[in-house]
Amino acid sequence: MNAGELVDRSFVAASTAVDREWAWGGSRGAEIRICVIDSGVTPDHPEIGPLEGSYAVERVEQDAADDGRPSYRIVPDDEGDAAGHGTACAAIIRRIAPDVSLTSVRILGPRLAGDGNALLAALRWAVAERFHVVNLSLSSRKGDFKASLHDIADEAYFNRVAIVASAHNSPVQSYPWIFPSVISVGSHEIADPERIEVSPQPPVEFFAAGVGIEVPWVGGGRSFLSGNSFATPHVTGFVARILGKHPHLPVSEVKHVLASLADNFTNASDPARALAPVIASAAPGPPDVSAPPDVSAVPVSSATSAPSAEGAGHDEPGT
C-alpha cells in the first residue's frame, strides 16, 4: 500500500463506538480458522467436535542440505492428546466461540515438554497456512530461539495472523508472549468466562479467567485447573468472535477492540482499585518449549494458587 491510497472503513475500529454488540454481537466465530499448537487434541471429543485437521511436528535427522542438522516437518497425526492440556484449551475455545474451525498441531509430549525447534516449525507452518488465530498456551525460555520467534511473530502480525500467547506463570523471561506483535494473556481470578481485563502495565496485555477452570482431561475425566494456559484460550475465543464479525481487522485493531471491551476501566476520580492478580509464581509454570525439553505446559492446581501482582507469571508448557 502507498501513501494516499483509500482504506475501507471495515479495516479499522476507530470509526465507531466500540462495545460488545459492535465487536461481536451475534458472532460465534464461524469461518474463523484456529490453530492450537499444544499437546494435541482428542479427536471428536464431545466438547470439541470434529477437527479441521490434526498434525504433529516430526523431526527429520538430516535436512535436504545434508549438513547433519535435524530439520522438522508437519505430518498428519492420529495419536490425539496424551497429556490433556491441548484438549482442555480447545474445549475452552469452543465454549467461547462454538462455530470456529479448529486444527491441532502437537509439539508437546505426555509430560508437557517439547523441542523449541518444533515450536518454530509449527508456528512457521501456521503462519504460512494463514490461520486467523494461533493459540499458544506455552512458551520457550531459550534465548537461542528468541530472534527466530520474534521474526515469525512479526510475519504473523503483518499477515493478519493473530498469535494469542500465554504469559509465563513464573517471573522468568520467555517467548513469544513478550513480543508486541502477539496478544499476551495472563489470568484473573474472577469466575466469569466473559470478563476481560486490560493491563495498565504491559508486557502482559490482557487478563482473562484462569483460576479453577473446569476442563475435560485425559481418560474422559474432568479437572479444575488454574494458570495462564487456560486464560489464553478465552482470549483466543474472543478474537475469533471479533474476526467472525469483522474479518478485515488487522491484529493491531483486534488489540484495540479487546482493550475497548475491558471490564476493569475506571475514572480518574474513582477510588483506587487493586490490579487483577495473575497466577502466583509458586505454582508450576505453563508449558515451556525450547531445545529438548525446553518447551512445557504444566497445569496449576487452583487449590494452591495465590494472587500475585507479577504480570509475567506463566502457565504455559515449556519448550
List keywords for this structure.
three-stranded antiparallel beta sheet, globular, disordered C terminus
Compact overview of the structure:
Helix content is 22%, strand content 21%. The protein is of the alpha/beta class and 319 residues long.
Number of strands: 16
Structure classification: alpha/beta
- Helix-strand pattern, N to C? HEEEHEEHEHEEEEEEHHEEEE
Q: Report the uncertain regions.
A: 272-285, 290-294, 298-317
Using the alpha-carbon principal axes, give the shape: globular
Task: Give a verbal description of the structure.
This protein has a nine-stranded mixed β-sheet, with helices on both faces. It has a three-stranded antiparallel β-sheet with strand order 11-12-15, with helices on one face. With 319 residues, the chain is of the alpha/beta class. Mean pLDDT is 84; it is low at 272-285, 290-294 and 298-317. It has helices spanning 20-24, 85-96, 116-128, 146-158, 228-245, 251-260; strands at residues 33-38, 53-60, 71-76, 101-106, 113-114, 133-136, 162-166, 183-188, 196-198, 206-209, 213-216, 222-226, 278-279, 295-296, 300-301, 307-308. The relative contact order is 0.20. A hairpin with a 5-residue loop joins strand 11 and strand 12. The N and C termini lie far apart (37 Å). Helix 2 runs parallel beside helix 5 and helix 3 (116-128) packs parallel to helix 4 (146-158). Helices cover 22% and strands 21% of the residues.
